[in-house]
Amino acid sequence: LKEENASLRSKINKLQIFSETQADKLRKLERKLEENKIKEEKEAQDLEAMVQHVEQNLQLMTKRAVKAENNATKLKQENALLQVQLKNYKTENEALRSGQSASLAAVKQNADLALRNLLTVLTNSRSSIKQLVSGAESLQLVADLLKSIDRISEVSEDGQ
């Protein structure tokens, strides 16, 4: 009976030691699980902040593109007006050559003014077109970034 009690006590001690090691492992795993939860929450917050930043940039670029488009439309209208003026000046120039009204100097001055206006419109149009192209490239970059964010979140979900 004493031997059996000693054997049982030995088994109890072994079971207590085993139980303590299992409890330690459990506590370590719980800590690791909590750390992983915190890490995942931080990553989710970082990703959300990045998405918000990208959305703000997209809105800003959209505003710039709209402004550039409006500017281009305005410049096209101005260009059309200047072309009408140029046509009128050419008609007036032809009339002067055939011996009618105003002097050649006035026609030359009007033609020079029309030329300067056309060059100004041309310069402004080029600038607006460059802005439109730049805005389109920026929008493409944002679209590519948003696609990659979707891929990152798909990989994260698959990785779990």
How would you describe this protein?
This protein is mainly alpha-helical and 160 residues long. The protein has 2 helices and no strands. The chain has helices at residues 2-97, 104-159. The two termini are 54 Å apart. 2% of the residues are buried.
Write the layout of secondary structure elements.
Layout: H1 2-97, H2 104-159
- How many extended strands? 0
Rg computed from alpha carbons, rounded to a whole number of angstroms: 39 Å
- Average pLDDT for all residues: 85
- Helix count equals 2
Unreliable runs, pLDDT <50, ≥5 residues? none
Largest sheet: none
Q: SSE order in H/E notation?
A: HH
Query: How far from one another are the termini?
Result: 54 Å
Helix-strand makeup class? mainly alpha
Shape: rod-shaped
In what range is the share of β-strand residues? under 5%
Helix residue percentage = over 70%
Assembly category = single chain
Protein name: Endosome-associated-trafficking regulator 1
Coiled coil: 19-92
Family: Belongs to the ENTR1 family.
Keywords: Coiled coil
